[in-house]
Amino acid sequence: MKIRVDRELCEGNSVCVALAPALFDLDDDNMAVPLAENPEGEALAEAERAANGCPREAIVLDG
């Protein structure tokens, strides 16, 4: 499973950072960036929570 952020949808509201701080951060433009490429186990569950919690549906889990 690969984490991707659609930068055209991301508003930088940092919900993903709050839900999965080990997997997401904000860059200098206040846009979400994934810190892990292929999460497994609990990290995958956190990625799914972040994707489901994103108000703009900017987090995409491929795979």
Please describe the structure with a list of short key phrases separated by commas or semicolons.
globular, 63 residues, two-stranded antiparallel ribbon, alpha+beta, 22% strand
Structural class: alpha+beta
Report strand %. 15-25%
Overall pLDDT level = 96
Helix content: 25-40%
Element-level helix/strand string: EHEEHE
* Number of beta strands: 4
Task: Kindly describe this structure.
The protein is α+β, with helices and mostly antiparallel strands and 63 residues long. Helices cover 27% and strands 22% of the residues. It has two helices and four strands; from the N terminus they run E-H-E-E-H-E. It has helices spanning 15-19, 42-53, and strands spanning 2-5, 24-26, 32-34, 59-62. The strands form two sheets. Strands 1-4 form a two-stranded antiparallel sheet. A two-stranded antiparallel ribbon has the order 2-3. A hairpin with a 5-residue loop joins strand 2 (24-26) and strand 3. The radius of gyration is 10 Å and the shape is globular. The N and C termini lie close together (5 Å). The relative contact order is 0.35. The model has no long low-confidence stretch (mean pLDDT 96).
